[in-house]
Amino acid sequence: MMRSRIFPTLLRLISVGVPILGFAIISDRASAGAGFPPPPPSDYVAVPSVGLYDAGGIVSREQGTVSVWLQFLPERPRRDHAIFHTDDSRFVLYVDTVYSPGLQVDMLTIAARAGGNGRAHDGIVDYPSFPEARIFIDNTGLLREVNYGATISWLSLASFPEAEWHHVAMVWEGYPEGSVSIILDGEFMSQKRYGPEFDDGRSMFETFSVGFRPADWIGEIISLPTGEETELVPRTEMSIEDGGIVIRDLRIYPRALTNEELRRAYVRSITLPTDEPTSPPPEPLPNQRATEIRSSIR
Question: How many other C-beta atoms can be found within 10 angstroms of the C-beta atom of residue 209?
Answer without folding.
Answer: 28
